[in-house]
Design brief:
Elements: E1 3-8, H1 14-31, E2 47-53, E3 56-64, E4 74-81, H2 90-105, E5 111-116, H3 120-124, E6 128-137, E7 140-147
């Protein structure tokens, strides 16, 4: 069972900042062999969702206010789980927590994500539906998805 926390950037400990960037790099850069600019300036204004197991961050996502990624939508991004917990339904727990927190901090039903295309069915289970055509983002096929409430 993961313990989830939601924190603004300035409330993260130095270890948490290190561990969140390490997890993002391990999965997005190393595992997926994708060279991209992860540190984009949006972390300062984001709410950071930390999923911890034995005080180690093994799941992560960030929540962005409407207008940051999409003009009229709040968004959930950088959704990631470590290899050690994948396939154990904890990614679903992460998304459920993210949706709950985004509605708390940005009282809107309008949530949009940019999902890796191969994860469409994963996000469908959380009521996200595809909008528009697939596109390449950092060399990986992605799809826009909107939460249907």
């Amino acid at each position: 069972m993961l313990v989830f926390e939601c924190k603004k950037f300035d409330l993260l400990s130095l270890k948490e900042v290190h561990d969140m960037y390490a997890l993002r790099a391990a999965v997005f850069v190393v595992e997926q062999d994708c060279v991209y600019q992860d540190v984009d300036g949006n972390d300062f204004s984001a709410y950071h969702i930390l999923g911890k197991k034995e005080n180690k961050i093994v799941a992560y996502a960030r929540l962005l206010a409407p207008g940051v990624s999409y003009a009229n939508y709040a968004s959930i991004g950088r959704v990631v789980t470590s290899k050690e917990i994948r396939g154990k339904e904890q990614g679903h727990q992460l998304m459920e927590y993210c949706i709950k927190q985004i509605k708390r901090y940005f009282p809107t039903e309008k949530i949009k994500i940019s999902a890796q295309a191969h994860l469409e069915k994963f996000y469908n289970k959380h009521a996200f539906m595809v909008t528009g055509e697939a596109y390449l983002e950092d060399g990986i096929p992605h799809i826009g998805m909107i939460l249907k409430s």
